[in-house]
Specification:
The chain has 635 residues and is of the alpha/beta class. It has a domain of 127 residues: GMP Synthetase, Chain A, domain 3 (2-Layer Sandwich). It is built from 20 helices and 30 strands. The strands form 9 sheets. It has a 7-stranded mixed sheet with strand order 5-4-17-16-18-19-20, with helices on both faces. A 5-stranded parallel sheet has the order 7-6-8-11-12, sandwiched between helices. Helix 11 links the parallel strand 16 and strand 17. Helix 5 crosses helix 6. The longest helix is centred in the first third of the chain and has 17 residues.
Length: 635
């Protein structure tokens, strides 16, 4: 494809300068030369940052699936588009060509239409990592329905909140799912989630485990039955550039998840461009991102970014340690993977296994390694580089967010000199800046500040579903005239960026952004709990884990503390999901608060980090004696 394919560092700086000086020409050329459009645009972009109003490729008409599938059929029809590697290695892997993918998406699109789904309807998808998940997403995009994928590890309460927020008309789910040596009752979770939810008209059920499930004949429909009889051609819906493509929920600093809305054209252009350049993708490569399609990484780099480039992309249903810690390396050798994009959590987990699990594998097909979800620590970076990449594969340490849609800061494979723990340089079109607490841009190098972006990029989220005011307040109010990422960063002597942590009450655990507020909400439902505060602390495997400070009601103080801890973590699992469980629970007499009653989480965070010499300004603390007690009993 004739992108601005960046071949060397000199070319990177040339293209970056052009993207800043002439953003209209830069993005217009990329969009015009590399995609199929029904109709061109009147303006490349139109925006008002303070109001959070952003448009790209104004009035253009397209369908993203025409660009992901149809336009590849003449040249790549017989090329493998998707490789499905099941949870159990004894089950045969499945290869789906672009020709076959077209048929599967067309038939599934027609199934959705037969159920009354039309352009603009919201469809929630709660499926394991099976081909039907990717196909369902593409089928929604094909007919103009807005998909909202819910990670298949979330609880029924988390599903319900998302379904109700977007007023979903249909849920696509499965009878069950496999994860390691466990079978998960997915349909049962969905049934519980949508009790008394009036918006859901149908539940479309895919057969995966073939377990018997409760079936409501007035609401539930077997996907396989409808699919068998569906027509295998489908004319893609004509979409406006700014029509919503999907809603993806992410944790916030309040109890309510944020439904980030991504629209069609800008997301398409930038995910494709970033995939092509960051990973230095070639047409014969085999790309494997180990993320789940329930997260933005899966959306952008397993599915859309990969297929837009005509790539072969891998879907993996299982976990890295089942049936043993060699599973990743088995798959790399089996499918001759060239690009391996994973999370630091997975790397750290596999580092603890005996090296023989790695040493028995060839891994010579690998060409590029990638890291995503959180900043990679130096020890993990070197292990990844030395033992998996054999010191010959560049590591692209990528920084981006659900809200950004695509990678914003990262090395360009085989172009940018890498530096352990650094995301290095912004991609062309990304005007990253550091800001001080007085809303001044911090110039020069060897500086630290709040990471912001001062000019819109095509794949930026357009709003929070149903709550634009929250969108503006969250991202455009702290540093007016810029997008605030919520992250702090430093810029070194050559201008490389390193993300140093979150500025809000969101903790990155195993690469997933977990808002502490909904976890605290779950804890506080326990009848023995008076109040709680959750903070993050460093963890050798997860990167960060969760530390809960919990004060009990009088009647709870006599309870067995081990049993209480188990009950509290079970509540979190039920109301939020197992990923929100606390690694440490400290029962306290009270929480440190300001005179206005605000919990001083930075003090609790410092205690969890064992940083006891400087709590900052504590002049507003109404109960300083509590801190001494918490320190004396810290875990």
């Amino acid at each position: 494809m004739s992108y601005y394919k960046i071949a060397d560092l000199e070319q990177y700086f040339k293209h970056y300068k052009k993207s800043v000086r002439e953003p209209r020409k830069f993005w217009s050329k990329i969009a015009e030369e590399n995609f199929t459009w029904y109709q061109g645009w009147d303006k490349v972009f139109d925006f008002d940052f303070p109001k959070g109003e952003i448009k790209w490729f104004v009035n253009a008409k397209l369908n993203i699936t025409k660009n992901c599938i149809d336009r590849h059929l003449s040249k790549r029809g017989d090329k493998t588009a998707l490789i499905f590697e099941p949870n159990n290695p004894s089950e045969e892997a499945q290869r789906i060509t672009y020709n076959e993918l077209y048929i599967k998406v067309a038939k599934t699109a027609n199934v959705l239409k037969s159920l009354g789904i039309k352009k603009g309807d919201r469809v929630c998808i709660y499926l394991p990592m099976i081909p039907e998940l990717a196909i369902s997403m593409l089928a929604c995009a094909r007919i103009g329905a807005i998909h909202s994928v819910i990670f298949a590890g979330f609880s029924d309460a988390a599903i319900r909140s998302r379904v109700e927020d977007c007023n979903a008309k249909l849920i696509i789910t499965a009878d069950g799912g496999f994860r390691g040596d466990k079978s998960i009752k997915i349909k049962e979770i969905v049934d519980k989630a949508i009790e008394n939810v009036t918006s859901v008209e149908k539940v479309l059920v895919v057969k995966r485990t073939n377990e018997q499930v409760a079936f409501n004949p007035l609401r539930d429909v077997w996907f396989n039955d409808l699919y068998q009889d569906a027509n295998d051609t489908n004319i893609a819906e004509i979409m406006d550039a700014e029509d919503p493509l999907f809603i993806l929920y992410t944790s916030g600093s309040t109890g309510k998840p944020k439904g980030m809305v991504h629209t069609t054209a800008g997301y398409m252009v930038q995910t494709a461009y970033s995939f092509q350049n960051v990973f230095n993708y070639n047409d014969t490569d085999v790309f494997w991102c180990t993320a789940d399609l329930g997260w933005i990484t899966g959306h952008s780099y397993i599915l859309y970014g990969a297929l837009l480039n005509g790539a072969t992309t891998v879907l993996f249903e299982g976990i890295p340690t089942f049936p043993n810690p060699s599973r990743y390396w088995d798959i790399i050798d089996k499918h001759k993977i060239t690009h391996f994009y994973t999370a630091p959590t997975a790397i750290r987990s596999l580092m603890t296994a005996d090296y023989s699990y790695v040493a028995s594998h060839n891994l010579s097909s690998l060409r590029v390694l990638g890291s995503v979800g959180e900043p990679i620590n130096e020890e993990a970076w070197h292990w990844f580089n030395d033992f998996i990449g054999k010191k010959r594969c560049p590591i692209v340490d990528t920084w981006w967010q659900t809200e950004t849609g695509a990678i914003l800061i990262a090395p360009i494979a085989c172009v940018t000199p890498t530096k352990p723990t650094y995301a290095t340089l912004p991609l062309p079109g990304v005007q990253a800046v550091l800001m001080d607490d007085k809303n001044n841009e911090i110039k020069g190098n060897q500086v630290m500040g709040s990471l912001c972006v001062k000019f819109p990029w095509p794949s930026i989220a357009r709003t929070i579903w149903g709550d634009h005011e929250r969108f503006v307040k969250t991202y455009f109010s702290d540093f007016p005239g810029t997008y605030f990422t919520g992250d702090n960063a430093l810029r070194d002597e050559v201008g490389y960026y390193r993300i140093t942590g979150r500025a809000d009450d969101v903790v990155i655990v195993s690469g997933h952004n977990l808002g502490t507020a909904p976890i605290e909400d779950a804890i506080n439902q326990h009848p023995a709990v008076a109040e709680s505060a959750v903070v993050g602390f460093p963890h050798d495997i997860k990167g960060n884990a969760l530390y809960g400070y919990i004060s009990l009601k009088l009647e709870g103080t006599s309870r067995d503390k081990d049993n209480l801890k188990k009950e509290i973590n079970q509540l979190i699992a039920d109301h939020y999901g197992p990923i929100g469980k606390l690694d440490k629970i400290q029962f306290v007499t009270d929480l440190p608060k300001t005179r206005s009653g605000k919990i001083l989480r930075r003090v609790l965070r410092s205690i969890a980090l064992n940083q006891l010499d400087n709590f900052g300004d504590t002049s507003t603390m109404i109960n300083p004696e509590v801190v001494k007690n918490i320190i004396a009993n810290r875990l």
